[in-house]
Amino acid sequence: MKQRDLFLAFFRVGILGYGGGPSSIPLVHKEVVEKYKWMDSDEFGDVLALGNALPGPIATKMAGYIGYRVGGYLGMINALTATMIPGIILMILLLTGLNSYKDEPWVKGMTEAVVPVVAVMLAVLTWDFIKKSGKSNLGWAWTFVALIGSLVLLQYLNLHPAILIFVLLLGALLKKDPVPAENKQAGGERQ
Amino acid sequence: MIYFHIFLAFFIPGILGYGGGPASIPLIENEVVDRYGWMSVNEFSEVLAMGNALPGPIATKMAGYIGYAEGGILGAIVGVFATVAPSLILMISLLGLLMKFKDSPRVKRLTIVIRPVIAVLLGVMTYDFFFSSYEGVGLMQTILIGGISFILMEKLKVHPAYVIAGSLVYGALVLS
């Protein structure tokens, strides 16, 4: 039952995720957090953050880890297979057979029409995280500062996201006292 | 020997590629075209174009197909394993450590400080997708498809599967 749910959840992610792994993140969120409730949105955020801080494809890291959490090693293999296999089989079949398929105008139309849908899903997920952050202990003011700070660091100073995430990770885990100092913490980390 | 080369060709992009599968494409190209000479640049871009037209993660599609082309079914398995395993093992062990202490204030604090960064990363991706849509189908179609899918998914709570399927049909019929 659990394994069947895992397979279905990640199969849907695999066959609906156009545009590579990162575009399937909102789909994973939809299945894992909203539909099957295997983890809450906070935990999903942590998993996604660590996934972004580590090398390698993000979709398989998410599928593998969540599969493992829900159903052990079998769950891990199950979720990975469900995410990857449809794409790989199609790819082998089409490339060894109908090679001109990708130049058909209707194929191009399909892949283009799905992009704005993914954009909307990503926008909704982004807003989710901003809202959660604003309502947390961090508060709206610090959330705003943190958003601008990260945006400047990542987009304009071209700091690699893995570096920023690792610094925050170490800062949060190594800082000694657990007294309510989250605000200072978040503020100080971005210097 | 060929399996060992397939393993290396995908292991290296797998551990060096930060930023998800798409970021590792140039690294894969470097191994497959420049180092091992399994295909020409043109062939590689053909395969990549096909991969982009199909659903699912791109890095494993490339590894699966190129592994298959060089070493049959076993080659495909080796290629996919080399792409997925190293980062997944890191992920499971690090998160296992983190979850052991998930009720500690430090891990809670981590959740709080990391959220804005994730929001920014997702926000940047949102922008990239809107921009590539604008370049691909133009402003009107982007607003039209985006607006309708927003209403369907967020207001009418339609599962994204149906919305994506709908957009595929729309794209095949109208945008071709």
Walk me through what this model shows.
- The complex is a heterodimer of chains A (191) and B (176).
- Chain A is mostly helical and 191 residues long.
- Chain A has a domain at 2-98.
- Chain A is built from 8 helices and no strands.
- Chain A has helices spanning 2-16, 25-35, 41-53, 58-96, 105-135, 139-156, 161-174, 182-188.
- Chain A is globular and about 60 Å long.
- The model of chain A is unreliable at 181-191 (pLDDT under 50).
- Chain B is mostly helical and 176 residues long.
- Chain B has helices at residues 2-16, 21-35, 41-53, 58-100, 105-155, 160-174.
- The interface between A and B is large, with 106 and 94 residues.
Summarize the structure.
The complex is a heterodimer of chains A (191) and B (176). Chain A is an all-alpha fold and 191 residues long.
* Large-scale geometry of chain A: globular
Helix content of chain B: over 70%
**Could you tell me the strand content of chain B as a percent range?**
under 5%
- The overall strand count of chain A is 0
Features:
heterodimer, A: 191 residues, mainly alpha, 8 helices, 0% strand, globular, B: 176 residues, 6 helices, flat
What is the topological layout?
The complex is a heterodimer of chains A (191) and B (176).
Chain A: H1 2-16, H2 25-35, H3 41-53, H4 58-96, H5 105-135, H6 139-156, H7 161-174, H8 182-188
Chain B: H1 2-16, H2 21-35, H3 41-53, H4 58-100, H5 105-155, H6 160-174
Helix pairs in contact in B: 1-2, 1-4, 2-4, 3-4, 5-6
